[in-house]
Amino acid sequence: MGSAPSAEFVTVLADQHVKEGQDVILRCEANTEEVTAKWEKNGWSLEYVMDKHIRRKSGKTFSLTIKSVAKEDEGKYTINLRNDAGSASCSAMVTVELNEWRTVHWKQDPLIRTLNNFDISNSKVGELRFLLHGPIGAGKSSIINTIKTIFEGHQFINCLAAADADASGISFSKKYQRFSVGSSPFTFYDVMGLENDEISTHRPRGVHSDDIINALKGHIPNDYEFIPERPIFKDNKYYISHPTLNDKIHCLVSVIAADKISLMDNNVIQKMKAIRAEASKLGIPQLVFMTRVDKVCKMTQKDLTKLYKSKKIKEKMEECSTRLGVPMNCIFPLKNYHEETERSENLNCLMLEAFRQAVYSANDYVKNVSHEKKHVE
Fold it and tell me: Cβ(316)–Cβ(290) under 8 Å?
């Protein structure tokens, strides 16, 4: 009798997409029965759990059944075949679709109507003001472009946002810029991106944290040009000494890219925390818009309606919550228009859900300020 042929695959493992609680079977076929098989998960030997993992060999066919899949079962599974003549391996990705843990209304028209017809609860406030801040390349300007696209009914493209998105290391937003949203009573303010300070000289780069705090308090006028080394002071001719509620920011939105959270430098994180702490002292509500969700989850990339069924998205939100100290219910994962030329209702709905919460939060703030003033009087 001749020796067995070197281990090879006739059919390989296939990627599997399975709902939480269902069973999944990974199956492949070898060219010979005379092989041994070893299973791995994420590069490590698979730890078999009784009544959870079932290994089978039937002739040349090998299979692994995972019973009642949970989010912990998601990962890359590999089978290694080996005999005296050689070895071979193949892998497959098991993606677990979680039970939906946050709901979204996937019809944009009611959301747009609600926001277009919104009445501010303080008659002395002409518009609700939102300040976007975050590291370079997070997508601040692209959020503004996306919201303007939704409300103005056509693709709104700001070339500076496109440059900002490439994370080139240079902030293209140099000024404190105001952007209106169609005919709605909402205004966004964009600022220079936050950056790491130069290590050797400790020279500040990007927008200075004090400038963002001054913007929150209403001391900075529209079109003011930031100077990283010199935050605005009271003796500056542009400094607004006695700001009214109409000059102040009513909601602070931190913008973080989902695919860059793990890579963010602690120096930038500390700057964001310091800004958030000051906003908390001022009573200003704060939300996080987590962009680029399609870059961290293939399931979401293919279908945005599965966003809140994604294990990867939930993990990124948890990481964002831990690093910034923000509650999970204040974090909104979303996607901006970037490569698309056609509008997407699902993309719009995610943005509108996040923006609606920002509007409600800002409105509560100006309403509370009004009540506090009446109490004082």
Answer: yes
Phi, psi angle pair for 361, to nearest 5° = -65, -45
Which two tokens mark 171? 């902030």
- Statement: residue 203 has pLDDT above 70: no
Q: Going by DSSP bridges, is the β-strand pair 286-291/251-257 parallel, antiparallel, or unpaired?
A: parallel
Q: What is the pTM of this model?
A: 0.86
Is residue 166 predicted with pLDDT exceeding 50?
no
What are the angstrom distances between the C-alpha of 359 and each of 123, 149, 293, 328? 16, 18, 22, 18
Task: Write the pLDDT tens digit of every residue in 314-371.
Answer: 999 999 999 999 999 999 999 999 878 788 999 999 999 999 999 999 999 999 987 6
* C-alpha to C-alpha distances, 85 to 5, 6, 29, 37, 240, nearest whole angstrom: 6, 4, 17, 14, 80
Q: What is the DSSP letter of 98?
A: P
Under 8 Å CB-to-CB from 26, ≥6 apart: which residues?
13, 14, 16, 63, 64, 65, 66, 77, 79, 92, 94
